[in-house]
Design a protein that fits this description.
seven-stranded mixed sheet; globular
Length: 232
């Protein structure tokens, strides 16, 4: 059994940002950042890209990843989950006679993920004997004091929390949407990314940025340049 595989999920379709997974991010296809981090982590027997798109496959191979097979139509639409994609990739490898003990599923639009981040998270998976390691970040404002709009007026969602101090409310976290470290055997049993024995990998919010809109993209580029000292 081989030790580990990095699976970068990069389908061709993207509604909000066309060709998002190979759109230039500070002059380079954004996919390259995820491939580069996975390769530099030096942990994986294989760094592969799961895609249904030939142009993305070519970009992945230029960056140093492999595309040993193409994604099926069932996992290339808007309704397929990340777990569906990972399950298909692992099953395809098994038909080739290749079995992995652990996997790291990395999103193709995660330029803030570094090799060191991946190494630390994968080590945590082993140390904690976890089913999975999930990178999370703390909400900067306590959601317990959120408000809603009802008939044009503001109303607290949870009135009992409005007078409480922020430090007296339990910290809440959310998924960073960057990558997931998985024990393959436990994933095959549970068939979900967030498994029963999930260990958090708490991230600094400076290195977390959703990239779902063009405005998000611009913010991410600005943050990246500030944090890495790069210019274009």
């Amino acid at each position: 059994m081989e030790k580990s595989v990095a699976i970068i999920t990069a389908r061709g379709g993207s509604r909000r940002i066309p060709r998002k997974n190979i759109k230039p991010f500070l002059g380079r296809p954004i996919l390259e950042y995820s491939v580069e981090a996975a390769l530099q982590a030096a942990l994986f027997d294989e760094v592969m890209v799961s895609t249904d798109d030939r142009e993305i496959a070519q970009a992945a191979e230029r960056a140093g990843a492999v595309v040993p097979f193409f994604r099926s139509g069932d996992t290339a639409d808007d309704f397929a989950t990340t777990a569906d994609v990972v399950e298909e990739v692992l099953a395809s490898y098994e038909r080739m006679g290749r079995h992995f003990r652990t996997a790291c599923c990395i999103y193709p639009t995660a330029p803030f993920v570094t090799a060191e981040t991946i190494r630390t998270a994968m080590a945590l998976l082993e140390q904690e004997r976890a089913d999975c390691v999930i990178p999370v970040v703390k909400f900067s404002f306590p959601p317990q004091r959120g408000v809603v709009v009802r008939e044009g007026r503001l109303a607290p969602k949870w009135p009992e929390n409005m007078a409480k101090r922020s430090q007296d409310l339990e910290p809440l976290y959310h998924d960073c949407g960057q990558f997931y470290c998985l024990d393959v055997e436990r994933f095959r049993q549970q068939k979900v990314i967030w498994m029963e024995n999930a260990v958090p990998f708490i991230q600094d919010e400076r290195y977390v940025q959703d990239i779902d809109t063009l405005q998000d993209w611009e913010i991410a580029e600005m943050k990246y340049q500030l944090l890495r000292g790069r210019t274009v």
